[in-house]
User: Fold these one by one.
Assistant:
Number 1:
Amino acid sequence: MKKIFCALAIVAITAFNMHGQNRALSGIVADSTGDAIQFAIVTIQGTYQSVQTKSDGSFQFSNLSDTIYCISVHMIGYENFKQCYNIPNSTVRVTLKKAPYQKDEIVVSSTRADQNSGVAYTNISKEELASQNYGQDLPIVLNTQTSVVTTSDAGNGFGYTGLRIRGSDANRINVTINGIPVNDAESQGTFWVDLPDVVSSAENIQLQRGVGTSTNGAGSFGGTLNLQTELNRKNSYSEMVASGGSFNSWRGTAKAGTGIIGDHWSFDMRLSQLGSDGFIDRGRSDLHSWYFSGGYYGDKLMVKGIMFGGRERTYQCWYGVSEDSINAGNFTYNSAGEYFDSSGNAQYYKDQIDAYGQDYYQLHFVYAANQSWTINWSLHATKGKGYYEEYKEDQSLSEYLINDTSSTLNDLVRRRWLDNWFYGITYAAQYNSLCKTQFILGGASNVYEGKHFGEVITAIGIPAGTSLGGHYYDDYANKQDNNVFAKLNYSLRKNLNAYLDLQARSIRYSFTGFDTTGSSLPQQANYLFFNPKAGLTALVATRHTVYFSFGVGNKEPNRDDFTNSSPSSRPLHETLYDFETGWKFGGTKLGAEVNLYYMHYTNQLVLTGRVNDVGAYTRENVDASFRRGVEVSFGYLINKQFSFTGNVTLSQNKIESFTEFLDNYDNYTQEEITYTNTSIGFSPSIISAGTLTWNNNKGLSASVIGKYVSKQYLDNTTSEDRKIDPYFTLNMITSWMIIKPSSKTGQKISELTLGLQVNNLLNTMYSSNGYTYGFISDAETSRYNYYYPQAGINAMGMLTMKFGRVN
């Protein structure tokens, strides 16, 4: 800890002493007609300095130390601008050209934060994503982001993976792709295994922490992942990527695009196949994905169709590994599919799998009415269908509606299916004045239709010809989710901006649930939420920006909370009040941000172990709980070859009063144990990451990446007997660009790169996730912990070949 605080102190001192000589660079950004362009992003390349243009199109950088600087200017709907200037005291005029084929960015701009939003966020570029994309799922690629903790069921990043932001789990993190909701409408989680290699089609990602800005889909309670797929390119291209390594893991990706055809048309495609045996026993995965887009780009209108999807077939690893097995030195034991033959020998059912496919269809329209008004709307549909198959021992066939007159128990194989559609429309109108105002009015109307059913495909030991029947359960769910939001960004004065964001969201959920007698019947739940947000951002000194924001988020319960309760025992919705304040510094060699947050929950839903009136274990509301902490992120350009980036989150995550319920099998009751000021489960008090990068600017580069996560409790009792131990991992990524990108025509290969990723260099044996349960029997309390161990030292190599001119 002392080293961490010393490093932060050095960063802070350096930030205030690196002003250098009093050279300046200022200018005006305008379009070809001479009209000023507000909100354009001007960046000094090779530094951490970046500003937005003001209402008159002006920008300024001061206290520069060198004599030559190159700037880049980015504005949606215009061609990117790059130019180098001699300093001192240069005043420049930048003229941006209209670029109709860059209207893609407007699709996501209405739901993203910017420099004036007053919220904590990080933009992750295509290049950053590609440098760490060796085939693992997106959560693993995001492992070094601020306040992020990731996990993998199979232990090596393939198959089922997940992430938490500030301790909040996946069903509290809003995910969109091109502004379209991705979270499952019922569970509200995101299953990245259904989107293998989606990173290869990502143009950029914005990760917001906390409530963030208003978006479409599930309520954001811990963060937002806003992913944009590839923008079109000017020139045609093709790419091939092949990677392979430990645990028989491999990935093959092929991409191609036409570039702009006839000044108006563009098409892109990708095919990917991935596989791995996994670190955990039988943790294999077989994954396929595809992507296709085609669009028309006119002077005022863009129409773009996007289709992508994935297929996964993974052996189940979601039960984890028991603590007893880990203590015995067996970190890979997987009990899924285990049964015993007539001789008492353990066997494993080979098709203990999860098999699911999900296809996304999107049609985006963008119309630029004039310089001030832009309108975009999107139609979308997502089709999902699949099942998980499992071997079950000693089952009563009558419970599966199989005609059985005996009282014997039989082994059987069952499948539980999900067949659903999710479709709707999203829309936004954006107004940018030439004065002080940016205004967005947007929203969405989405419908989910889901079928849940189960079937028995094999029953062992029953007479030949016995009918296995049809579906032993059939549930249908319908969810209608509508929202409308208005966002206003207003320049109160030259260096002070105000931000206001108001959202109304309505939900109508129809499902099959229980009444107080335990009988199933159709039910419905309705919600109407109001989620206001507001913030202030001020440039208080050269390179120094401060901000403050307050936001409210409301979130409905998940599917299990509804279907496994009666109307009288159903939990209330959750409410979050989020306060954020921070400071940003952008210097020539140093960039830094400090963000303080306080997240107060009302009626947060947590597992307590209590059995409700229909005999189910469901989540319950706790009256008051909070998360508070400080997030520090920074980057430092040590010299022309070395740089360092890092982040640290220090937090407290507490429930004021929590009651645990334990089953007592001696008298068939539940014992109550009350705790006060207890820690929220899976919420480490320290999360940090650091990356030291060397680049010789001749094609060779190497990065060493460290990640530390402090202890996490498996439940909300703050018990030292039920926790995930702290861990520190060290990874390394190296690359050698043998052939550098070139704009020359006739060059067959425009880029050839070899890469190597070595994970867990210290061969640390650790777990990143887990669960626990307990009970009382024979007057003794028993507790059982299960963990998800992660692989020791492992490696992936990668070959990338690109063809065509650089765009």
Note: The helical segments are 2-15, 106-109, 126-131, 138-141, 323-327, 559-563.
Number 2:
Amino acid sequence: MISVHGLGMRLESGGRPVDVLTDVSLEVPARQFVAIAGPSGSGKSTLLGLIAGLDRPTAGRIRVNDVDLTELDEDALARFRRDAIGYVFQSFHLIPTLTALENVAVPLELGGDPLALERARALLDEVGLRERGHHYPVQLSGGEQQRVAVARAVARRPTLLLADEPTGNLDSATGKQIIDLLVALNRTLGSTLVLVTHDPALAALADRVITLRDGRVATDEPNNGGIA
């Protein structure tokens, strides 16, 4: 499903090169729930963004669904993200001028789905927001906004679902609800879930935990206590 080999990411900071990721290699099989953990600044979000095709690495290769992302041009990469990847951000990234229903419908409409609004209503129902579709993001709580973001991320039934600190702006109880929702939807879709978190309790829910330190893989271990 995901194959990362010799991945490196070097950025300029204050006129000096900074290695954010160095020689990262990993394999993630289909349907696995993987947590990427580690302290702030360890490269977790950078790695997730590279797997999503949001950025390009300065070294190494990334394959998702047997497609080499490093060989795609920007248009092909955008199409691949649209069709194969769902992404949940920490800060929700909802469009403020659209209702919850319209936000969920966006990827469906971009994909040419003639039943976009009908499908979006069904998705809002799945995440427990049947009655909130006509509300704008500013009228929703943080947990409700993240539920809308999750519904939007899974709208096109992606084979890969990525979540970057999806509970970072939520209280612990609401955050647990969002993780439970992500895991339940992921199992229903039969897709692969990769979650970035600094919270050991959330990482402990995964099938496997990959820990980064200073831009390198420090540990990569199965988690027997994960959600089966």
Note: The mean pLDDT is 92.
